[in-house]
Each structure stands twice: as C-alpha cells, then as structure tokens.
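Supplementary Note 3. Input sequence used for the single-chain structure prediction.
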Amino acid sequence: MKFTQFIIGILLIGPIAGATFAPHFLGAEETRVPMTVNEAEIRECAKIFANEFNSADAKAIAAQWTEDGEYTNEAGISFNGRDAIQQEYANFFKQYPGVKIKIDIEEIKMLSDNSAIEEGTATLGEFAPVECRYVLIHVKKDGKWLIASARDLRVEAKSNFARFSELEKLIGTWSHETSLGKIETTYRWIANKKFIERDFSVSIDGKITMSGTQIIGWEPSSEQITSWLFDSTGGNGIAIWSPTEKGWMIQSSGVTSNGTATAATNFWNFSDDDTLVWKSTNRIMGNESLAETAELTLKRSK
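The predicted structure, written as discrete structure tokens, is reproduced below.
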C-alpha cells in the first residue's frame, strides 16, 4: 500500500514539483489551468478574514476552514480541525489584544474550478509591525471557498546562502526497497553549490517504471527556496520549500501529462541523520481531493 501511495504521490509531486521548475524555466503561464473562477471571490475571502481578525472573532475565522482543515503557524505547530484552529486564534487574541492585520495577496493560482493556491504577506501591528509570508490551499465546497490548508512562513533576516545551505543534510542517495519494488532518490550539489539536483526513480521487478529530475534553488524574486520538477510521464510542477522542526514542508502545484491540475503538501522529515520519512497531505488532482499517504521511510545508502 505504501509503495503504491508513493508512486501516486510522485505523480502528484512531479506535476507539482515539476510545476516547481516549469514556471521559471518554461514560463509560469504554461503550467496553470486557465482561470475559470472569478479570482475576486477568493480576494473577498481575504478581506472577510482581515475584518474578522481585526474584530478578534476566532469562531468566525475558524469557519473559513474546511471542517478538517489544517493551520500551521510560523513555529511549525499544526492545528487540525475548526475547533483547534478557533482555540489557537482565541489564545492569540488573548495574548495580543487589539492587534490588527493587513493582508497583501501576491498571487492566486487557479488549479481548477474548485481549487486554488494563494500566496501573500500578512503584516501584524502598526507601530512595530511584524511581517510573515503565508500559503493557502483553497477548495470550493457547496459554492463557497474554504481553506483546506494554511501555512505561515517566518520572515527572517538571513542570508540567501544560509537559507539554502540548510538543505545540505539531504545530499546523498536515499532508498526504500520491498518485495514490490524499489524507490531511490539522489540529491547532489550543482552549479557551484547554487542549486541542488535531485534524481529519482521507481523500479518494479528490476525495471524502472518512472523517473524524474528536480532542481532546487533560491528564487531571488520571491525570496524563497523553490524547486522545479519534470517526470518521465510528462508531468511537471513547482514547489515552495519551508523548514520545519524535523525537516522540510514542500507546498506544490503542477500539472500531469494529460493536463490535470494537481496540488499537495509534502513533508521530508528526518528521524535521524540517515533516515528520511516522506508523507503527502492536502492532495488534490483535478476537482478531486485525495486521501493523505501513509509515511514511507527511506534510508541513506550513500
């Protein structure tokens, strides 16, 4: 089951991580589904969120999420479900009474008629403002846009190299092998350590059934670690990498070889220096939401 899920995850990650590369190498417009839903609906949701936040209405804020939605704060702590999200905002407002928020949407990517990714900046406070980046995954249910996943990303005064060098731990070859087949992925520095190249393959009965290449680097215009991926099925995608306590969260979007839009939140977590655990959540293919995968463990082999 895990092996099958990983292959499906690769199919999402490829069109997603590939979309990670495609937007900059091929032109972002080529990897997006033509907009068929008025972007103004999502922008209106952001205005409503800001009004509810500035009114310290934790219950109304939580209602903007799906029932099983997820919110991860900039410390990497996740809150699952409306009740937990409501409690987190209630605690925040109690700790910081009267704080106001200003939201600047930088981009909305329509993945399908019923799914979209929103990226932007949120500024808290007026006299000594604190800024953070955010990424939201929206889904449309019963004609209403709701948040399936939200992630706040800490903005730190950190050099580009220092941010990127945190990926050093991934360098090497990682594999997972069972009676069903073998998964292998290799990370290596390229271009004077300005980028990392990742090659991956999936083999069944000794034959490679799928492979792909991913390039990871610092994207100066967005000031984020970004990756672009192409797989052997023809899918491609783009992803934003954010550090977590145990590894990396990778929020991806892209397109399969047949033009189906995809999105997912993927995690590479370290159990120890030689053990890497992969998991994929908030997965969308076309208009369909997919179940999250089981964890899959890869061991360092080189």
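The CA atoms of residues 3 and 180 lie 7 Å apart. The domain at 2-30+160-300 is CATH 2.40.128.20 (Lipocalin).
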